[in-house]
Amino acid sequence: MHSYVLRANALLTFAVTILALMCAMATLSDNFNSPSPASQVQVLNIYRFQKKRDGNEEVSLTLNISANLQSLFTWNTKQVFVFLAAEYETPKNALNQISLWDGIIPSKEDAKFWIQTTNKYNFVDQGSNLQNKDFNLTLHWHVMPKTGKMFADKISMTGFRFPETYR
Ligand SMILES: *[C@@H]1O[C@H](CO)[C@@H](O)[C@H](O)[C@H]1NC(C)=O
Ligand SMILES: *[C@@H]1O[C@H](CO)[C@@H](O)[C@H](O)[C@H]1NC(C)=O
User: Fold this and answer.
1) Enclosing domain of residue 145
2) 74 and 7, same structural domain?
3) Based on the domain organization, do 27 and 98 belong to the same domain?
4) Number of domains in the chain
5) What is the tens place of the pLDDT at every residue in 17-56?
6) Ligand 1, atom nearest to 64 Cα
7) Ligand nearest to the CA of 67
8) Which uninterrupted H or E stretch holds 118?
């Protein structure tokens, strides 16, 4: 009886050691994977651009978002969270970041996509800074691994501009 417990214990220790080793290898092999994600975003239409009663400007737009994030997926990837943010500078803040769309990519097969969508979240500036202002659209991603550390990166796309006049 005694030796049976000992044996089971030894087996368990062995299993845990192997598991730890596999986790370490998974994390390590992830570090060797240098992903090359790509994204393209077009603003198809800014169909509303107004100053609200409280003085803050609001923008409604239609976006064409395409991306290929397949290289982010390894066998250690659980899922990838993505969001697209409008980023611009104002006198008050060097970086204003407003999330326009987000999604969870569950698998490599889903990591190559394009969608046409209006902004999922309200785009309201803290003030009225937007007329004729340049902005970036940045695709951010957070890779959630099965084991090891989460990591994040982004692609910034430049050359967008808000209209000169309200519509
Ligand atoms: C949207 O993007 C996709 C992929 O880049 C492209 O094939 C399609 O023509 C675009 N649609 C419009 C309306 O520009
Ligand atoms: C927009 O992107 C460019 C290029 O990555 C960067 O130099 C600039 O600081 C960005 N602007 C904002 C407001 O984040």
Assistant:
1) 35-161
2) no
3) no
4) 2
5) 888 888 887 777 766 667 899 999 999 999 999 999 999 9
6) 1
7) 1
8) strand 112-118
Full-model pTM: 0.83
Closest CA to 162 of 126, 121, 130: 130
Do 106 and 156 fall within a single domain? yes
Cα 38 to averaged position of ligand 1 atoms, centre (Å): 14
Same domain assignment for residues 87 and 150: yes
Contact 148, 28 (CB under 8 A): no
45 and 60 both lie in a single domain: yes
- Asked whether residue 26 is assigned to any structural domain, the reply reads yes
Q: Give the ligand whose atoms come closest to the C-alpha of residue 85.
A: 2
- List pocket residues of ligand 1, CB cut-off 6 Å: 40, 42, 44, 64, 66, 114
Taking only the tens place, the pLDDT of each residue in 90-114 is: 999 999 999 999 999 999 999 999 9
> 88: Cβ below 6 Å to ligand 2?
yes
167 is a domain residue: no
